[in-house]
Each structure stands twice: as structure tokens, then as C-alpha cells.
Amino acid sequence: MTAQEPDDLLVRLRRFRSDYFPRHQQRFQNLVAEGQHPKTLFIGCSDSRLMPYLLTGTGPGPGELFIIRNVGAFVPPCDGMHGLHGTVAAIEFALLELKVERIVVCGHSHCGAIRAAYEGVAEEAVALRSWLRLADEALLPVRPSAAALRRSEQRAVVLQLERLMAYPMVRCRVERNALTLHGWHYVIEEGEVHVFDAQTGDFLPASLASNAGTGPYQPYVEHDGSIP
User: Fold this and answer.
1) What is the pTM of this model?
2) What distance, in Å, lies between the first and last C-alpha atoms of the chain?
3) Among candidates 124, 10, 92, 24, which has minimal Cα distance to 64?
């Protein structure tokens, strides 16, 4: 960047302060005075094309979503964790401190994490390689075609819901109807979110679905009748 070129990020920061903040200043001040009380924990992929506030209609105002984003929208297993883990800590904070009422796990089409889980990553990406093993159970024993990738993306969403149900603090809240789980698969090129219906074991377009997705209260059954 030369001295003559504007710093784009700096321009945006200044625009937020001069244009956006004055219109929503009272909202920000209320959130400081009263604290945050989001109803929904949104676990989404870090992909820049996934826009939680637009999908859920909660933007542009702050305070409505508690968001966890990581590569692939993965949830580590409840057992087998060692050391510090930001995703697990955020789940605990959302449930125990914020007392959220919904958890949404949102995957998406053309997910680089799922493709990388099939094809591998650079040798120096040690942490990423380890993290992508969380997708192993969602992968199919086939070549990663477009159809296989789409199915794997959806299977990965259900896998994360099942892992969430293994967390005692999640299961007990679900069983007493204090918490609902929702699995979504966002098809970027169509602008459609497909929601997981545990009763049918399928993902349905939100435009045709009767609910916003239900959790894995029964084993997920594939179209061929098998349970992954």
C-alpha cells in the first residue's frame, strides 16, 4: 500500500463511527447497561459467504445472536477433549451464562472444510489437519463429487447436532424443553436454507418446511435407510 492509497479497513472503521453508530447508539448503550440477552447460539462455518445476521433477519442491530464460527462449523466431542477449547467454552458460556433457548448449527454448500477433509491439506497445516478429523464420520466412501460433497455437508451438520446432544448440559435442557436444536444447510447459490427435519431424516427447503429444523432426537436415517 502506497502513501496515496486509502486504508480500506480504516475507512470502514471511521464510517461505522460516523454513520452507523449514531443511528443505533441507544441500542448499544442499552446493551451495555442491561447486558446481552441473545436467545440463539449460532454455530456457523468461518466461510465469508455465510452471513448469520442476514440469514436470520437479526441485522443490523447488535445483541440478538451469540455466534461461534470455526472451520466447518464443527462441534468437538464432549469426551476426548484435552486442554483449552474455544468452541466448547463458548457453548458453555451460551448455555450457562446467557441461557440461550436455541442452538443453530449451520453448514453450507461449497464448503472448503468438507472438500479439504476429502482431499487433504498442506503439510504445514498441522492444527487444521487435526481439526478436519471432526468431519470423518460425515464423509462417504466415494470420490468427492458435487453430490457427495453436498450430502457430506448435510451429514456434517447432523453429526454436530448429535455431538451437542452428548453434552449433558445440552441434553438435559432439550429433554425439559428449555432448549431446541436446529440443523441448517445454506445453499449459497440459491439463497435457500435447507432445515433438518428429524422426523423424516431429511433436509427441506425453508420455503417449504413446517419448522425451522429439529434436533437429532432420533437417529439420522439416510435416504437408503442406513444410519450413518
Assistant:
1) 0.87
2) 51
3) 24
CB 139, CB 118: distance < 8 Å = yes
Instruction: Give start and end residues of each alpha helix (H) in the chain.
Output: 8-15, 21-34, 52-56, 86-92, 112-119, 126-132, 146-165, 168-175
**What are 11's three cell numbers?**
475507512
Confidence of residue 211 (pLDDT cuts 50, 70, 90): confident
Q: Which residue has the cell 425453508?
A: 206
Contact (CB, 8 A) for 111 and 72: yes
| pLDDT tens sequence across 90-143 | 999 999 999 999 999 999 999 999 999 999 999 999 999 999 999 999 999 998
Residue with cell 450430502: 151
